[in-house]
Amino acid sequence: MAALGWFTRRRQPATERSVLAGEASAEAARKSSAETAPPQTAAEPEFPVVGDEQAAAFFDLDNTVMQGAALFHFGRGLYKRHFFRKRELARFAWQQTWFRMAGVEDPAHMEDVRSSALSIVKGHRVAELMSIGEEIYDEYMADRIWPGTRALAQAHLDAGQRVWLVTAAPVETATIIARRLGLTGALGTVAESVGGVYTGKLVGEPLHGPAKAEAVRALAAAEGLDLSRCAAYSDSSNDIPMLSIVGHPYAVNPDGQLRKHARERGWRLRDYRTGRKAARIGIPAAAGVGAVAGGTAAAVALHRRRR
């Protein structure tokens, strides 16, 4: 009977204190469940946006799309074809190595690099270098394209957007690479030619640093693009001016300075290198320091040719 009385008391109506205890327990259970559940993150908006005709993508070339420097690979191909002697090759290779290791752009040194590159092609026909460039791409460049970056470019193309290379390499070399990858075109350093023959001079300055940003601005204006809807991709802190003018900047295989800058500003990062550290990659070799005049000249000249 005592036991029966115990069960009977348990079935008595709940008191105010027991109701309070039950509600408190239920609330604690709900909070615990919410804290242990995986966090709910908002889905990122679709990018690139399909059918956005005012959007485009701009890709740096050296160490972003392709491993190494296009200018150096081009030089190897020209040496193989006896455009210059072994002594000149050694000097050219040392200039590239110094630049990549030092990571700084001494004006006097860059002028020396630029003069060497221009002296190689002086007196040669543009058509000749374009033909040779096709062969050099197959020999030294085709196998050095980063698959990850190539996929990024293809995503923009699949969305119906235009994709441009933007590089300090000669515009002829950049155009060959862009065509082989199925891209829209390329912005690059413009070497002066008269009657289809290189003079050994540049139009303006090499397309480097701030000049790239100016080239992209000029091309966007000519093509009716909205830069706030465009994307840019680069590995180098030298391209921060270009990355800063678009709405969707990406740091790809970034050097240390660009990685830090990108993290501070919430830019997206992509790294397709394996078994290497960014510090060992160095800054992409270029033919010289940037200038606004060179960038604008490259963009406008390319736009005129496309017209």
Q: Can you tell me about this structure?
A:
The model is unreliable at 1-11 and 276-307 (pLDDT under 50). This protein has 307 residues and is α/β, with parallel strands linked by helices. It starts with a helix and ends with a helix. The protein has 13 helices and 8 strands. The protein has a single domain, classed as 3-Layer(aba) Sandwich (Rossmann fold). Helix 8 (171-180) links the parallel strand 2 and strand 3. The protein has a 6-stranded parallel β-sheet, sandwiched between helices. Strands 4-5 form a two-stranded antiparallel ribbon.
Order of helices and strands: HHEHHHHHEHEEEHEHEHEHH
Distance between the termini: 104 Å
Q: Helical element count?
A: 13
CATH topology: Rossmann fold
Organism: Streptomyces botrytidirepellens
Pfam families: HAD (PF12710)
GO molecular function: hydrolase activity; metal ion binding
Protein name: HAD-IB family hydrolase
Topology:
Blueprint (H helix, E strand, L loop, with lengths): L1 H9 L5 H21 L19 E5 L9 H11 L5 H17 L4 H15 L4 H16 L5 H12 L3 E9 H10 L4 E5 L1 E4 L2 E6 L7 H14 L7 E4 L5 H5 L3 E5 L3 H10 L2 E3 L7 H4 L10 H15 L1
Parallel strand pairs: 1-2, 1-6, 2-3, 6-7, 7-8
Antiparallel strand pairs: 4-5
The gist of it:
With 307 residues, the protein is α/β, with parallel strands linked by helices. The protein contains 13 helices and eight strands. The longest helix has 21 residues, at 16-36.
